[in-house]
Specification:
single chain; 208 residues; mainly beta; 4 helices; 10 strands; 44% strand
Length: 208
């Protein structure tokens, strides 16, 4: 398949992380960064997203409002990806954009993936993410793969998306939304209570 050429303005850059759930257990795969742009792909006006690795982000230091270009391929499995395209080549920063928001939602150059891992996240209401946090460097929309029977990891799986916040605990835009539920074997359901979020960020102060 031939790669599709694109160019456009960055409207969001966030960590690209995949979440795997197995009843009350969860693990993360840190893939790089998810970039959303408003521009053109194969000469069609469109808003779309693509994934890049940590090395590419370290090289270009992309942020909201930068104009960029490149070529990419559609992802093979949309259930397992938070982006529309991947395997980006010919990546270039065409023009440095104006600084984005310096407070919530933060639109700066995002930190290294290790910073996200160290900070930990809280669940974030999907509606709040869509309306207020989709451009924030501390937001994340993760594809989730659920292993329904943890005694048979090769068996039935389910897929969905969940939104999270890595931002300061004092952020006034933040809303947790309902507790997440995870289906298990034999019809059991695990409810991820508030204490899980609290434990994830217990090492941070309110302004961190």
């Amino acid at each position: 398949m031939d790669k599709q050429s694109f160019t456009g303005k960055i409207t969001s850059i966030q960590p690209r992380i995949r979440l795997t759930r197995s009843f009350d257990e969860a693990s993360h795969t840190y893939l790089g960064y998810a970039i959303k742009i408003a521009g053109t792909i194969d000469n069609q006006d469109v808003t779309f997203s693509f994934g890049i690795g940590k090395a590419a982000q370290a090289k270009f230091n992309f942020k909201v409002n930068d104009i960029i270009s490149g070529a990419c391929l559609p992802v093979p499995d949309p259930d397992m990806e938070s982006v529309d395209y991947y395997k980006v080549s010919k990546l270039a920063k065409v023009a440095e954009g104006e600084p984005g928001s310096l407070s919530a939602p933060w639109e700066l150059v995002p930190p290294e993936l290790e910073v996200y891992r160290e900070r930990g996240h809280r669940r974030l209401a999907a509606r709040t993410y869509d309306s207020k946090c989709s451009s924030c460097m501390w937001g994340a929309r993760m594809p989730v793969e659920i292993i329904v029977d943890n005694w048979n990891p090769r068996g039935k799986r389910k897929y969905r998306f969940e939104t999270f916040c890595y931002g300061p605990l004092s952020c006034k835009l933040y809303k947790a939304g309902p507790n997440r539920k995870v289906e298990g074997r034999g019809g059991m359901v695990y409810v991820e209570e508030d204490w899980v979020d609290e434990a994830n960020v217990a090492h941070r102060e309110m302004e961190e």
